[in-house]
Amino acid sequence: MNRYLQSREVILSAAILMLILLISLRFPAFIAPANLANVFNDTSPLMILAIGQMIVILTKCIDLSVAATLALTGMVVSLLNIAAPDLPLVVTIMIALSLGAVLGMVNGLLVWKLNIPPIVVTLGTMTIYRGVIFLISNGKWVNAHEMSPAFKALPRHVFLGFPLLSWFALAVIVIAAVVMTRTTLGRAFYAVGGNPHASVYTGLNVGRTQFWAFTISGALAGLTGYLWVSRYAVAYVDIAGGFELDVVAACVIGGISIAGGIGSVGGAVLGALFLGVIKNALPVINISPFWQLAISGTAIIIAVVLNSRANRPPGRIILKQSEPAA
Amino acid sequence: MSAMKKILTTVAVAATLIGGTAQAETTRIALVVKALGIGFFEAANKGAEEAAKELGDVEIIYTGPTDTTAEGQIEVINSLIAQGVNAIAISANDPDAVAPALQKAMDRGITVISWDSGVAKEGRQMHLNPSSSALIGNTIIKLAADHMPDGGDVAVLSATATSTNQNIWIDEMKKVMGNYPGVNLVATVYGDDLADKSYREAQGLMATYPDLKAIIAPTTVGILAASQAVTDAGKIGQINVTGLGLPSEMAGAVESGATISFAIWNPIDLGYAATMLSYNIAKGATAEPGAKIGMGRMGDATLDDNNEAAMSDPFTYDKSNIEQFKSIF
User: Fold this and answer.
1) Is ipTM strictly over 0.85?
2) Residue A206 near residue A196 (C-beta atoms within 8 A)
3) Which of A45, A315, B63, B266 is the most exposed place for a label (fewest CB within 10 A)?
4) Number of domains forming the structure of chain A
5) Beta bridge partners of B242
6) What is the pLDDT of residues A193-211, one digit of tens each?
7) Is the pTM of this model over 0.80?
8) Angle at which helices A89-113 and A66-83 cross, to 10°
9) Does the beta-carbon distance from B189 to A130 stay under 8 Å?
10) The domain that contains A47 carries what CATH number?
């Protein structure tokens, strides 16, 4: 099984490399290390969110409220920054993480305790969270000159050659990889999505595991909320509008099965990078914006087709041929 | 007993009459915007309220969908028709899609005008342009050219490829490019009015055209994202980001130097003028080619052959006046 997963990631990595080479034929500067680092940095929010989404999808759920959670947390920390410009950034980040986690818990509780289908729950909370942003901000923008310089500088601060935004993504990738492969909770996510009935018999609480998946996804969306508003130095109702679809697309491209139970951190990261490369390449290869949409869509469908072909389970013999009588 | 009954009846009838006339006198004008929560339209609402206060007997209903879709606006229009407002002044998300709903409103005797972003001719009585498209087109290229004495490359970062007003302004800009020798337009890209996509498009422009001198973004989200991208790339002083933006949003960029100057008409004036026009047309002024209709303190609007009128010239903001305006809108 592990070899199988590995090989899919290898295929995706090869596809990304091919894509980069193709783009560099048309725009040579794209392959420069500085530009590739830039692409990685630009894709960091998508990678962090895709990892959270992957965990939710593993448990047979889906979280459509990630972008709204991101936007709400981003607005709250921006307003907080106006009210208390001297608040240490560590506190800001802790608030972003915990607020995101609480918003994720709301999804989780509704799915766990009330047994509402996750797509309905998160579709509802998505709209509610966007509405709350409007209420707390009165529809106003928080602009660059209202944010404190330190608040805006953090994601751009360069540490060992990379901006901190990239380091946040790397940290999330490493922690998620360890949690998903080395801890009971991580394995529980796979078990609950892979075979809910069997996991009940092994003593796992399916609902509670899904609750934790939503909580983690919410916390990561909260963290991204702060990184997003500080990077673009603006917060308003519509930030990251429609981004939840990119996040789900990144997961699907990364080979995470919508039916649950199959997927890896590496897959989610590569899926996000695949989309990130396309998004960053389209502006520089100079083609009509109408074609850009068609190309993004086609790339997603091709990747999904390749993945589902690779994913197709080989035929299995359920009933043996009659054995010769003893 | 009978006298008592008579008095009561008279009072009741009188009360109904007074109530009825009071209601008929208040003109209810709906200001329908592209989406709620956009600073520009919030400011227009301030102007509309100012006009309402000046006129005295006007109630402003400020409304719009929560996202910039024509479908959302059609729902809003239908509910306004049901409420029986006297006038609708709309900034449309799509010139054609909202026209049938607005025609229905006009059939019911509701005054319909469009402002900012226009509606197809059959869907409104008149359209108020914030400025003339030609003036805006000239202003945005002039803002860039003024700071490029030796000429050079400029690029446009627009909203979506189908935005009505941005496309008209860019076309008008291209018509007057000849008046600015040495200034080359190398590309037009679209950031879809999303902060992250606009930022990425601006990065793409800097990578593709290393000699770029200016980015012209005739959209508030785009100019802000482009300023941020130029700041992050460390190219302040090398690339000037200009175009159309709001003072409150652009204050940071002007302070850092990423944007030397930018322009916008005054949205407060625009909301004010749209309200005044709606009121005057609802009260009997005819909207026909050549007609002059009053806009209160903004003077008169003169309608052209398409029943369109321009309010005033765009206004330039820079380091000298940004402090004064950033708290206004």
Assistant:
1) no
2) yes
3) A315
4) 1
5) B216
6) 989 999 999 999 999 999 9
7) no
8) 140
9) no
10) 1.10.3470
